[in-house]
Every structure is written in structure tokens, then in C-alpha cells.
Specification:
The protein is α/β, with parallel strands linked by helices and about 350 residues long. The protein contains 11 helices and 10 strands. Helices cover about 40% and strands about 20% of the residues. Strands 1, 2, 3, 4, 5, 6, 7, 8, 9 and 10 form a 10-stranded mixed β-sheet that branches.
């Protein structure tokens, strides 16, 4: 692997952790990053927490001088926090770590020994139940199958499929070359609090990024019912489908890519329409909310269909409450190394 001039060959990675009220999990996240010898910087941005997130993060400093904790006076969102960390970093490679997730041992060694012909490189994610996060992990020895992710594959991989467990490609946490980000002026969109990763990665791909995906697993993600991504606001959905519109207007895409982008936008817009309807229903009542949609019969049909679908899912969820979720599982298909 060719290490860019001016970086430390032994520790070229900066791990960025944006955290808000994460005192229960931030210590594990920071320790997992500091345990990796390829990590030269760990930057925690406490995004206006009301708990002891910053103090807990500082308490697990290993004395190596690699940990930096930045405290923001008020919550500004993950995009703003990550951009502040990028400003404070000088490492050749940047990796995002969520505050309730963790790095699995050897992750960066496995990724950085891959061919250097990439701008972004991601690996598989092990999804575990938050209630079992401290239990010993049994991580399979997964074959190092790798492929280059195209713009079309990325967009299509972020379109949810009915009846299929969520496995959007946008959930991946790639290691990114700072030189590529800087050369193309790429940073997180600070107006977005939902889908900001998807937006950044898609703009990078549309700018020509070479995005490699390796099926080995190096990232552990906890799954919880009350995650921030599950509590997005109506306006956040609006910002996400408008991001698709901007990308379509600003970048040269193929006809297939534009078609996929339109399908993704339509899916997010449909979710927005449902949330907007539920907001109005709470404010003005069911009858008035339905009346407002009478002039948009297609939207009304989608909203009513989605309301019934969600009620059906809620009933099934209650009836299956005693059935444990199928976790842990891998985000991407995984083939054991001994099957080669």
C-alpha cells in the first residue's frame, strides 16, 4: 500500500466519532479505535450532549496523544460535527465510527493491505442487538471477496425492498482518502440529519470515486428500537429527497443512474408524504387531513395504503413480540474463508 507523503506510515487513519448523549457507549467506541495500531487520530465531537459523553470519552484516553475531544455548545447534527472533526484532522485516511458502534480487531490492517486502487473502501458490518453488545462476539472468518461498487449499484442498494430485511449499502462505513475529499471539495451537507452518509458517498461516486467493498467484517453496529435514524423528522425526509434532486441536477449521470435516483427519490418522498399526513392528522384531525389530499389522488392512495401497511406491521410485531430478532447478522452476504 502506498502511503501519501507527509503521513505516518504506521498510523495513517483518523477515526471520527460524532456523539450526542452517548455516555453509555462512547467508552467502548473510543477504546476500539485506539486499539487499532493503524489509527493515528481519534476525534470525538460531543454534539451538545446533556450527559457526561465528553468526560467518559476523555476517561479512556490511553495516553498515546491520539485522542482529541471537541465539545460543541449546542447540538448541530452529525454532519456539522463530522465536518468539524475533518477540520481538526490531518490523517491521510478518514473513518467514521458511530458513538454506539465499535471497530472489530484488525479492521484497518485488513482494509489497508488491499490494493491501493481505491478512494473509498468499506467492509462488512456485524449487526448485533444492543442488549447483547457486551457479550462475546463470534465473528466468522469471512473470505476476502471484493468488488468495485458502481454509482448505479450504490443507488439501487439504498432502495428498500418490501419484505426484505434492511441492508442498504449506504449503511457501510468506508475508509475515505482525504486527498479525494479535498480535491473534490466534498464534505457532509450540514443541513442534513438523515441520509447524510448516503448523500456524501453518492456525490463522491458521481465525482469519480473508486469505491471498493470487501466482505470481511471489521465493523460492529448495535441495533436498537429507539435509534436516532428511526426517529427522523418530516423535514429530514424532505431534505433527503431534495438531496437526490440536487445530485441529479449537478452531476452527469447515465440514464440508468437517473432512473434509479428517481426511484430512490420517489421512495423517500412517499415516506415524507406519510409523515406529513400524520403530522397534519395530529394537528387538524383525520377528516381535514384526508380532505387536503383529495386533489392529489395518487398521494392519497399511497398514504392510505402505507397507513394500513404500518398498522398491519404493528399488529404482527405485537403478536411476534416473544420471538427474538434474528441477530447477530451480517449486512452483506458473507462466505466463510474455508469455503474457498
Amino acid at each position: 500500500m502506498a502511503i501519501p507523503a507527509g503521513s505516518k506510515p504506521e498510523a495513517p487513519v483518523c477515526v471520527i466519532i460524532a456523539a450526542m448523549n452517548a455516555s453509555a457507549t462512547i467508552a467502548r467506541a473510543v477504546r476500539s479505535a485506539l486499539d487499532e495500531p493503524e489509527v493515528g487520530e481519534v476525534i470525538v465531537v460531543d454534539d451538545g450532549s446533556s450527559d457526561a459523553t465528553a468526560a467518559v470519552a476523555t476517561s479512556v484516553d490511553d495516553g498515546s496523544g491520539r485522542l482529541k475531544v471537541i465539545s460543541l455548545p449546542e447540538n448541530a447534527g452529525p454532519s456539522y460535527a463530522r465536518n468539524r472533526a475533518l477540520e481538526a484532522s490531518s490523517a491521510a485516511f478518514v473513518a467514521i465510527l458511530d458513538a454506539d458502534d465499535f471497530i472489530l480487531p484488525g479492521r484497518f490492517q485488513r482494509l489497508l493491505r488491499q490494493s491501493a486502487d481505491w478512494d473509498f473502501i468499506a467492509d462488512n458490518i456485524l449487526l448485533i442487538d444492543a442488549a447483547q453488545a457486551d457479550a462475546p462476539l463470534d465473528v466468522a472468518d469471512i473470505a476476502e471477496d471484493a468488488y468495485t461498487l458502481t454509482t448505479l449499484q450504490f443507488i439501487e442498494g439504498n432502495i428498500s425492498q418490501p419484505g426484505v430485511e434492511r441492508a442498504e449499502i449506504g449503511f457501510l462505513k468506508p475508509v475515505m482518502k482525504r486527498a479525494f475529499l479535498d480535491r473534490h471539495g466534498l464534505r457532509y451537507d450540514e443541513t442534513m440529519r438523515l441520509g447524510e452518509d448516503y448523500d456524501l458517498y453518492l456525490r463522491a461516486l458521481a465525482s469519480g470515486a473508486r469505491y471498493r467493498v470487501v466482505h470481511t467484517c471489521g465493523y460492529g453496529a448495535t441495533v436498537r428500537a429507539n435509534s436516532l435514524s428511526g426517529r427522523h423528522r418530516t423535514v429530514d425526509l424532505k431534505m433527503l429527497y431534495e438531496a437526490d434532486q440536487r445530485i441529479g441536477a449537478e452531476f452527469e449521470l447515465t440514464a440508468e443512474e437517473r432512473g434509479a435516483l428517481s426511484r430512490h427519490e420517489a421512495q423517500i418522498r412517499r415516506r415524507h408524504d406519510l409523515r406529513s399526513f400524520l403530522d397534519r392528522k395530529k394537528e387538524i384531525g383525520l377528516s381535514a387531513s384526508v380532505a387536503q389530499l383529495l386533489g392529489r389522488p395518487r398521494t392519497l392512495w399511497h398514504v392510505m395504503t402505507d397507513v394500513l401497511r404500518d398498522k398491519r406491521r404493528a399488529r404482527l410485531s405485537r403478536s411476534n413480540a416473544k420471538t427474538p430478532a434474528i441477530l447477530p447478522r451480517y449486512l452483506l452476504p458473507a462466505r466463510n474463508a474455508d469455503e474457498e
